[in-house]
Design goal:
CATH class of one domain: Alpha Beta
Shape: elongated
CATH architecture of one domain: 2-Layer Sandwich
Number of strands: 17
CATH superfamily of one domain: Histidine kinase-like ATPase, C-terminal domain
Largest sheet: 5 strands, antiparallel
Structural class: alpha/beta
Radius of gyration: 42 Å
Oligomer: single chain
Strand order of the largest sheet: 2-1-5-4-3
Strand content: 15-25%
Helix content: 40-55%
CATH topology of one domain: Heat Shock Protein 90
Number of helices: 15
């Protein structure tokens, strides 16, 4: 190799070295620029992420994200503050621990169903707050995609809608109550009209039956038949009281009573009305304590509970159990009723083997207008009325139930141990007299029946068929009468008006007002007019005789 060739090779190597050095410098410069760019990108990413977190944490929404495995991987500060839990507790499926057990299956079903289809979803469920209270939230989620349009999971936000939801439910409940109140008002108006007309009819039936019964020997079969007519009439009278009690128009009268006798009567009534597919068992303590109560209200309560039990067993049959026993309740027994005093109580229990009541429904059964029955098969008032009656008596009612196993209601009423029921006499002397009576009634049948009944008691009777006619008669001969007995509801002039006009002529004249029903009549009104006695139709001969004698003797 010549020297020239060697020099050329050296020159080429030197040039190549220079070129490599220049490329190396360029590479170093590029690396430096790349490092700066990467650092700037990381800072920008961190800043964007921080801005996202600040944005997520600054609002009121509870925000979460999940990955492609449907497990949650992020919850914002608002979520964690709401639940009172740490991030690691909520991660994965830990968040589901706070969902109300009754909402869990539905909630996860919606979430996983949407996840499989990669669709948006919206659902409402109850989530446990930090204080243990479950709050209704609205959870809306949508799928997330990266820049390459690859599915990377879900993002969702939740809003606390509890107050709004409760307000909406309350609005619906108020509207329902308004509708039911209007229905009850209509029922009340109808009940009042029925009570008046029906009681007038019963007054005739009961009055004539009693008079016929007096004329027939007690040992005859006809007498026994008439006794049944009289008993049926009295039951019909009680039925009207039930109608008025249901429509809240009736006046309650609390008296000492032996509940065992009432329960026995109800069991007979139930056996005649409930199908044979339902057996009736009873355990009634005949020596059970006396209680102070209105018999009609107690009857109404028991029939409500027994009717509900029947409906629970209507399809498949079962057993209705009724028990009545004495109980001594301590402070421990009344831990949930701190306003009540320990002592002796009467417990009445109604049990069925029907479908049972779900826990979430059991909390609402005593609410007014709440019912699970189909439209037209229940008002939602039965248990509410029962609860109100029991509470007004200073007692309490409890419910035990399991779905598919049956339900038990226990009514606890304070007993009156020291009270002794008055002895009942089958035959009491009928009060009679000879005072002159002006009888006023625009119903011809009632007027004739009343005249015969009073004349049998020894009273001379003058009958007038209207208030105006009676007033004219009285004006002509005001001293010919010792008492006036008048119906209230008459055309032209009511009994109240007639009484006022008569008392203007003869103050202190004994007057008795009779009515089949009127919600405008009160004790205060009667006393203000000067009327001395009041009788609700239908009444027995003994009752009206005692009332007449009491009013007349009081005036003397």
């Amino acid at each position: 190799m010549t020297s020239e060739e060697i020099e050329r090779i050296i020159h080429d190597l030197e040039m190549h070295q220079i070129e490599l050095e220049m490329q190396n410098e360029e590479l170093l410069r590029s690396n430096a620029e790349l490092h700066v760019a990467r650092k700037q990108a990381e800072e920008t990413l961190q800043e964007n992420e921080q801005n996202y977190r600040n944005l997520a944490d600054s609002g009121q929404a509870l925000i979460w994200t999940s990955g492609t495995d449907n497990l949650c991987n992020y919850f914002n500060r608002v979520w964690l503050e709401f639940t009172g839990r740490r991030l690691e507790q909520e991660m994965g499926s830990g968040w589901a621990e706070g969902v109300h057990p009754d909402d869990m299956e539905r909630c996860l079903g919606i979430y996983l169903g949407a996840f499989d289809l990669k669709e948006k979803f919206s659902m409402e469920y109850r989530l446990r707050r930090y204080d243990g209270v479950y709050r209704w939230i609205l959870d809306e989620g949508c799928p997330r995609y990266d820049r390459k349009d690859q599915f990377v999971g879900y993002i969702g936000h939740c809003l606390d809608i509890h107050d709004r939801k409760i307000a909406a439910e309350e609005k619906i409940n108020l509207q329902t109550r308004l509708n039911q109140a209007q229905k009850m008002e209509a029922i009340g108006t109808l009940a009042g009209g029925i009570a008046h007309d029906f009681n007038n009819i019963l007054a005739s039936i009961l009055g004539y039956a009693e008079m016929i019964r007096e004329d027939i020997p007690s040992e005859s079969s006809t007498a026994r038949d008439l006794d049944q007519v009289i008993k049926a009439s009295n039951r019909a009278k009680d039925l009207v009281k039930h109608i008025l009690a249901f429509s809240r128009l009736g006046v309650t009268e609390r008296i000492p009573l032996q509940p065992a006798l009432l329960v026995k009567e109800i069991i007979k009534l139930l056996r005649a009305t409930i199908p044979m597919t339902i057996a009736i068992e009873h355990d009634v303590d005949k020596e059970c304590s006396v209680i102070i109560a209105d018999p009609t209200q107690i009857h109404q309560m028991l029939m409500n509970l027994c009717t509900n039990a029947f409906h629970a067993m209507e399809e498949n049959g079962g057993t209705l159990s009724i028990s009545l026993n004495k109980r001594t309740l301590t402070l421990n027994d009344l831990v949930h009723e701190p306003h009540l005093r320990p002592g002796n109580y009467v417990q009445l229990s109604i049990r069925d083997t029907g479908t049972g009541i779900k826990p979430e429904i059991r909390e609402k059964i005593f609410d007014p207008y709440f019912t699970t029955k189909e439209t037209g098969k229940g008002t939602g008032m039965g248990l509410s009325i029962t609860h109100g009656i029991v509470k007004s008596y200073g007692g309490f009612i409890t419910c035990e139930s399991k779905a598919g196993e049956g339900t038990s209601f226990h009514i606890n009423l304070p007993s009156l141990e020291e009270h002794i029921l008055p002895e009942v006499h089958s035959f009491e002397p009928i009060s009679a007299g000879t005072e002159r009576i002006l009888l006023v009634d625009d119903d011809p049948m009632l007027a004739e029946m009343g005249k015969q009944m009073l004349e049998r008691l020894g009273y001379p009777v003058t009958v007038r068929m209207s208030g105006i006619e009676a007033l004219n008669t009285f004006k002509k001969q005001p001293d010919d009468f010792d008492m006036v007995i008048t119906d209230q509801t008459m055309l032209g002039m009511t009994g109240i008006d007639l009484a006022g006009r008569i008392l203007d002529i003869r103050p202190n004249l004994p007057i008795i007002l009779c009515t089949g029903y009127s919600n405008r009549i009160s004790k205060e009104l009667i006393e203000s007019v000067g009327i001395k006695g009041f009788a609700l139709k239908p009444f027995s001969k003994n009752d009206i005789a005692a009332l007449i004698r009491g009013v007349l003797d009081e005036g003397n």
